Amino acid sequence: MTKLIVWHDGGCPLCRREIALMRRLDRRGKIDFVDVMRLPEALCPIDRATMLARFHASENGQLLTGAAAFAAMWRAIPLLRPLGLAARSPWLLAKLERLYLLFLRLRPRFQRLFAEGRGA
User: Fold this and answer.
1) Strand order in the sheet with 62-65
2) Distance (Å, whole) CA 51 – CA 64
3) Mean pLDDT, the chain cut into blocks of 10 residues (120 residues total)
4) Is 110 within 8 Å of 14 (Cβ atoms)?
5) Can you spell out the DSSP letters for 23-72?
6) Which candidate, 39, 88, 104, 109, has a CA 20 to 30 Å from the CA of 9?
7) Within 10 Å of residue 13's Cβ, how many Cβ atoms?
8) Dihedral angle sign, alpha carbons of residues 60, 63, 68, 71
9) Does residue 9 sit in helix, strand or coil?
10) What is the sign of the dihedral through the CA atoms of 48, 9, 26 and 106?
11) What is the maximum alpha-carbon separation in the chain?
């Protein structure tokens, strides 16, 4: 399996917690986690604002976004691999994408909840 690149928003308290968990689960080191906030603009594969608005990953050189990016990350982590493999089903991936779009609408509330010193 090729190494996976996952871009995340290091300025988001919710994202930092999630990525910290994924780093712990990635015991084989198959994922390169890249903080978009620390990445020079010239090294972003697409516009930084677009990268920060949605979750992105690169699997085998293909840029993925949203639920597809999460599924790629899950496939790289043995514990979550069955879910990531199941998400290759177009039907399930479409359902997960709809859930992700709902999450994006609620994300600002979750970010406030998980702001430093709260939601721990």
Assistant:
1) 31-35, 4-8, 56-59, 62-65
2) 11
3) 86 89 96 94 90 94 96 97 97 97 89 63
4) yes
5) HHH-TT--EEEEETTTS-GGG-SS-HHHHHHS-EEEETTEEEETHHHHHH
6) 88
7) 20
8) positive
9) coil
10) negative
11) 39
- The letter for the amino acid at 114 is F
Distances (CA, A) of 60 to 2, 4, 18, 35: 6, 7, 23, 20
pLDDT for 66 equals 97
Q: Tell me what pLDDT residue 120 has.
A: 47
Q: Is the pTM of this model over 0.85?
A: yes
Q: Radius of gyration over alpha carbons of the chain, in Å?
A: 14
Structure tokens at 97: 């994408």
Please name the residue that has the structure tokens 């190494």: 3
What pLDDT score was predicted for residue 111? 76
